[in-house]
């Protein structure tokens, strides 16, 4: 079985639960194990929240920018991709262990000074994504600007899940 979808959303806080519910309902309907559904949907929420907060360059006239969420469920693997139109990740993060400026959303992931503490309200989303997913990639969109967060998660199926077939 293979399911895929992609949706463009406004960089607005209300879009985050919309994306999460869309993914959850798709996975539940397909028969994915509830624990895996939950973990993937939390990771997606974090990626979307980062896109809303850091990646939405406003359009002329002040309208909010947009970001794209894509989901691919194929056999035993789920891949999620969230791409925004913001400034992207700093070069230091993409190339290795050079310091990332304190307060940048990627500081907690890179382990540099300024990492989020246990009581921090911000800076933990990318770390959570890494904990919940099996494989995570943080890249920039080539030539267009913006960040791309993609992550994979191995799927487990409910015992009563019937395979969905495309007729």
Cα shape: globular
Q: Tell me the series of helices and strands, N- to C-terminal.
A: EHHEEHHHEE
The radius of gyration computed from the alpha-carbon positions, rounded to a whole number of angstroms, is: 16 Å
Oligomer: single chain
Topology, number of strands: 5
Count of helical regions? 5
Contiguous runs where pLDDT drops below 50 for at least 5 residues = 92-116
Helix content: 25-40%
Major sheet summary line: 5 strands, antiparallel
Q: Bin the strand percentage.
A: 15-25%
- The order of strands across the largest sheet is 1-2-3-5-4
N- and C-termini, Cα separation: 12 Å
Helix/sheet category: alpha+beta
Instruction: Please state the average pLDDT score.
Output: 80
Describe the overall structure.
This protein has 167 residues and is of the alpha+beta class. It has a 5-stranded antiparallel β-sheet with strand order 1-2-3-5-4, with helices on one face. A hairpin with a 6-residue loop joins strand 4 (135-140) and strand 5. It is built from 5 helices and 5 strands; from the N terminus they run βααββαααββ.
